[in-house]
Specification:
Length: 138
């Protein structure tokens, strides 16, 4: 089990603007309204190494909106421990993590629009992020 899967069992995510995949790969991300998706995927980093130096560097997350994907699981959006934080995620039908993206300054995500395999997540502050639910790095 990867570090991010262990954190997800307690509904926690690292406090960093980042994309985390269940396979253990993590990348920095940036909200960018100048790109069509509203999101730039940046350099990868080693989550285990970062949490080794500060294991308390996590935020509890709580969902505010869900969109079912039938047998393919669900999409979930919501908030972190602080009012400015938000997250978006894809989960399996058993609610295991497929991928999650955490933002420190987006505000909570409370709306999801799904069209095929593309989802647009909208936050209470108007941040919109569009991702391919099968590969959010695209």
């Amino acid at each position: 089990m990867t570090m991010i899967e262990r954190l997800w069992e307690d509904f926690q995510l690292p406090i960093r603007d980042a994309l985390h995949c269940a396979d253990g790969n993590s990348c920095d991300v940036a909200i960018d309204s100048d790109v069509p998706s509203g999101l730039k995927v940046l350099a990868p980093f080693d989550l285990d190494e970062i949490l080794e130096s500060d294991p308390s560097w996590v935020s509890a997350v709580d969902g505010l909106v869900t969109v079912g994907l039938g047998s393919k699981g669900l999409l979930w959006g919501g908030e972190g421990s602080y009012g400015s934080e938000g997250f978006i995620a894809r989960l399996t039908i058993e609610r295991a993590l497929v991928w999650a993206i955490f933002f420190t300054e987006s505000n909570p995500f409370d709306r999801i629009q799904l069209s095929g395999n593309v989802a647009t997540f909208s936050s209470t502050s108007g941040v919109e992020v569009t991702v391919d639910i099968d590969d959010p790095r695209r």
